Task: inverse folding
């Protein structure tokens, strides 16, 4: 047996676990969610959110700031589900496979069209590494900036918090919880498609969102 | 806009969220881990473990029993990391991309060769839906049964619990925590390979495991 393929990795820069940073973040979120969640729960959320994003990320430079947003949003969702925190508006969750195109466009278009009358999240059953550049481009054409968005895995907390779950090509990979409304939208996956096709998908999502919002919160 | 692609899904059989089952499981594990973890932490582990497996599973029939094993093992790992539960032997974690071939073979071969002198876990950065059938076949040739194994996503808890982390083709998707020993094994991915090639990968893993065990726990 040759040992040529074995190498020992020790704290390679950029890959190291930012333990102090994550502990500090957990401390800050424990204060923010005091009376709602224990320090133990918050720390678990922070560390597991970091590892979940790391698994599918290529650019580790954004990992720390994305972990802040992902962990905070998941804890917020769980607080909503527990009834400890209310937004007062319908909560909509968009789920597709990669959370790189369809569900991201749907979330941003809904935020844009609803103007605060609903709250929106998105997730993927098998999150991609980054957003689809064609998706970013066609949203930019409408003046909608997606630079801060990133693919996130579907988690229990965001489904628990949702009133309406819209699935779009994630197969059966979304748990069907009682008491929620489920919609399944048949949409072309923008992965690998031309900019013209992606523009068409964007416009179809926009039309569907408009219909859904009319029904949910009035025209 | 045509609405032909929209359908409303409500509690389709087999996809429904087994809420009562998961709450009962959380209750049992809360008793098992009393004094180590709060009921809140245990319930979060059970529900998030279910959703994490659901995302990449095709056969929902096994989801409930797999959730029991995945959640229990993750909580056990976290208890080890906290020092609340000791196995008294080195803890080895194998990580590959899909947790469908290399890391699964390494875990089973290590268990077999070590005979209780180490404890073993495996995980994947992007878990596959099921194990590679060729991998199951070549392990069966050695009398090693993998029927109960399944791909699992890499989580923070199992890395925290590990003394040695062996990565094999998961890129940088494994957090490098301080105080652990990391090995990186260059191995061919068995996905799509012939049974002869997979047999060769199995034998190379076996040889590497033997060397590692000699170093860790003596010949």
Result:
């Amino acid at each position: 047996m040759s040992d040529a393929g074995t190498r020992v990795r020790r704290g390679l820069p950029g890959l190291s676990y930012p333990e102090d940073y994550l502990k500090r973040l957990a401390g800050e979120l424990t204060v923010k969610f005091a009376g709602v969640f224990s320090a133990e729960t918050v720390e678990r959320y922070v560390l597991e959110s970091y590892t979940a994003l790391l698994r599918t990320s290529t650019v580790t430079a954004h990992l720390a700031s994305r972990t802040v947003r992902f962990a905070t949003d998941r804890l917020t969702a769980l607080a909503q589900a527990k009834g400890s925190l209310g937004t007062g508006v319908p909560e909509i969750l968009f789920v597709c496979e990669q959370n790189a195109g369809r569900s991201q466009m749907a979330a941003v278009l809904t935020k844009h069209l609803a103007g605060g009358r609903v709250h929106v999240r998105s997730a993927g059953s098998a999150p991609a590494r980054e957003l689809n550049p064609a998706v970013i481009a066609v949203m930019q054409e409408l003046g909608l900036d997606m630079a801060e968005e990133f693919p996130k895995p579907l988690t229990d907390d965001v489904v628990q918090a949702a009133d309406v779950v819209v699935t779009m090509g994630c197969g059966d990979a979304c748990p069907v919880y009682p008491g929620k409304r489920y919609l399944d939208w048949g949409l072309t996956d923008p992965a690998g498609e031309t900019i013209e096709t992606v523009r068409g998908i964007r416009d179809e999502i926009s039309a569907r969102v408009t219909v859904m919002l009319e029904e949910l919160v009035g025209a």
Remarks:
- Chain B has seven helices and five strands.
